[in-house]
Specification:
This protein has 131 residues and is mainly alpha-helical. It is 66% helix and 7% strand.
Length: 131
């Protein structure tokens, strides 16, 4: 009886796409961690090389699933909702991690330190003034 039009309910998220997005992020992170600080020769070593290879294959497989889900005809609104369900928690975790590092870092003579690791300075002028 009211003059407001009825709104269509939000579509359910695509759980396969959501899982593929999380696998893509986790496997890309694992590939970066496995290759961090190691040259090409170290990537051929047994544990690091296998982990890097598996992470790269998982990244590629997740990317293929995401592209196929994007190209399927149908509800682009559902795809956007699923992307939002993935991006919001990831950005929230990154913001919480950044806030934790900033709040728990301590000034030392060498600079800001968090968990026994010297952080990069906010300003290189501070470093030049200290040295």
């Amino acid at each position: 009886m009211s003059g407001a039009p009825a709104r269509a309910p939000l579509p359910a998220p695509d759980l396969t796409l959501l899982a593929a997005l999380y696998v893509l992020e986790a496997s890309a992170w694992l590939a970066v961690v496995a290759s961090y600080g190691s040259g090409a020769r170290a990537l051929l070593a047994f544990p690091t090389g296998i982990i890097f290879l598996v992470a790269c294959v998982a990244t590629l497989a997740a990317f293929v699933i995401i592209v196929r889900r994007y190209r399927t005809p149908g509800a682009p609104r559902r795809f956007g909702l699923t992307i939002a369900l993935n991006v919001v928690p990831v950005l929230l975790l990154l913001a919480i991690g950044e806030a934790t590092v900033r709040l728990m870092s301590q000034p030392m003579p060498r600079g800001l330190v968090f968990a026994k690791t010297v952080l990069l300075p906010h300003s290189w002028r501070d470093v030049a003034a200290r040295n």
